[in-house]
Design goal:
260 residues; alpha/beta; Rossmann fold; 7-stranded mixed sheet; 7 strands
Length: 260
Amino acid sequence: MPAVVLAIANQKGGVGKTTTTVNLGSALSRQGVPTLIIDMDPQGNATSSLGLEKKPGKGVYEPLLSGADLSGRVLSTGRKNLWIVPSELDLAAAELELSSQENYLTKLRASLDRLKNEYGLQCILVDCPPTLGLLSMNSLCAADHLLVTLQSEYLALEGLGQIVGVIDQLKNAGANPGLSLGGIVMTMYDNRTRLSYEVWQEVSTHYPDKVFRTAIPRTIRLSEAPSFGKTIFEYDPKSVGAQAYLAFTKEVVDRFLTQS
């Protein structure tokens, strides 16, 4: 079976998107699921969170523009069952260059085809930039499902409707007819506040089958781990953040990988 492609996105920055990508990838790989992370964010936070550096000519930039096979850009993270296509500085220029090309929304999908069907991968996680530009659009057009990381605050609800609307636009335009809203994970959740609970309830009312049961708590350990180039499982495996990501990963496996 081809690998399941999950795009992890939110047009707002600082909402736990990269933290979720990296720790979900790590938890999947630790459970024996061969997983690839594609860092589509020019800032390269997923790359650095795994202790790797952005290097010119090593990321997705050239394959994205040419549609060439991505397999030559896959690097080991030094962790069993976990690989990455790192970010690179040139990605920032890709938005402009893509807009002048034909099929500019589906370049990443063309590059991913061999990786999806060969090499034994079971899951591909695409870490999108915090905008809804062409890099994110390419990520969504290459994905089977969108996972939204949603901060537990009211302003986040406004952006949720926008990004869900993009799914409909891409489907209606024929750019990715099979794309679905795979799920919404609440991040930076503080169970001591009524606000976090109310936001979760509101999202659950509007998207009753999409919200994951596990909320990712706001913890200093999750914030610290990337600065050491470590996942939460390497940095503090007994922390509440690590336990939350294990529970969330189980939900992801049950929802997407047991059906494939």
